[in-house]
Amino acid sequence: MRAAFLRRTLLALVLTAAATAAAQNPSPHAIDIPQWFANTFLDFREDVADAARDNKRVLVYFGQDGCPYCKLLMQTTFAETRIVDKMRRRFVPIALNLWGDRDVTWVDGRKMSEKELARRLGVQFTPTLLFFNEKADVVLRLNGYQAPHRMDATLDYVAGKLEAKQSYADYMQGAAKEAASPKLAEEPFFLKPPYRLQRQRDGKPLLVLFERTSCASCDELHRESLRRKEVVALLPKFDIVRFEPRDGADLVVPDGRRLTVATWARELAIHYAPTLVFFDALGNEVFRVEAYVRPFHLAGALDYVASGDYRKEPSFQRYLQTRADGLRQRGEKVDLWK
User: What is the pLDDT of residues 153-173, one digit of tens each?
Assistant: First the structure.
C-alpha cells in the first residue's frame, strides 16, 4: 500500500508540474516583469471571463528586449505603490513579447504565436497596453510609455468603466494634471490657413500633428525632439500642419472633404497628445505615432515615411533595428533614449 501511495503521489507531482509548465512563463524581456503580473494559459477568452467574475479587467502588455520605454514603464510607473495596488485589485495584467513564440488563443478563438498576434494587432510601438472590457472588447489602447500620473488616472478611467460616459481624451484633460504650457507652441514650418490638405501625386507627404494645451509631452516634443539636427534635416521632406483636436475651424482633408478639425480628429480617433499622422502623396494615411517618443524614434518615423520604406517593411520596430544597425556600422553612436 505504501508503494502504491508513493506512485500516486509521484504521478500527482508530475501532473502538477506539467500543468504549471503549460501555463507558460512570460517570455524573457529586457527587464523583469513584476511578480504580480498574471501567469495564465494565454487563452484570452478564459482570461477575460475569469477576470470579469472577480470584477476585474484584463490588461495586455506588449514589450520587447532593449526597449528603454518598457524599462521606464516597469521600473518607474509600475513600481509606484498606488499603481501596483490598483493593478492588483482591479486588473489582470498579462505580459506578451513582441517577438515571442508562445502560443496564444485570441478572444475570437484563433490560435497563433505572440509575434503573430502583435502583427495582427498592428503593434508598432513598445510598450503597447490593451485594456479589455467584460465582453472581450478592447476599450482602450495606449502606445508608448505612460508616466505614473497618467497611468494612475488611466486605471481609474478603465476600472470605473467610464468609456461609455466620456472619451478618454476628455477625461485625461481634467484628471491628469501636468506642469505644462497653457498655449500651443508655434513652429515656422507649420502650414498656415486656409487649410487645404489635398495631396498632389508628385507632392510631399503630409504630416498632421495633433496637440493639446497643458500637454507636457507636447512641450517636450518642441523643446527637444524638433530641435535635434537629425530631426530638423528630415522636416523639409513633409508638409506639416498642427491642430488642436477640439478646434472648430474648417479645413479640407486629404480626401477632399470639407470638415471641422474636431470632426476629423474624431474620425481619426485621436485620443493621445501629441499624435502624428502621416499621409502619402495620394492622401492615404500610411503611418502614425501616438506614443511618447524620444528624438531617435521620431527621426526614425520621419525617415520611415519619407523614404517610402513603410511600403516594403510593415514592422516599424524591424525598420528601427535595421536603421540603428546601419548607423552603428557608419561609426555613429545610437542611443535609443537620447
Answer: 999 999 999 999 999 988 998
Cβ-proximal residues to 125 (8 Å cutoff; 6+ apart), any chain: 69, 143, 144, 289, 291, 293, 316, 317
| pLDDT of 120 strictly over 60 | yes
Each residue's pLDDT tens digit, 44-59: 999 999 999 999 999 9
Nearest C-alpha neighbor of 274 from the set 193, 178, 197, 195? 178
Q: State the CATH number of the domain containing residue 132.
A: 3.40.30.10
What does the pLDDT read at residue 14? Answer: 37
Does residue 44 sit within a domain?
yes
Cis-peptide into 127, omega within 30 deg: yes
Residue 313 and residue 224 share a domain: yes
pLDDT at 31: 56
Domain hosting residue 315, numbered range: 206-329
Residue 8 falls inside a structural domain:
no
111 shares its domain with 214: no
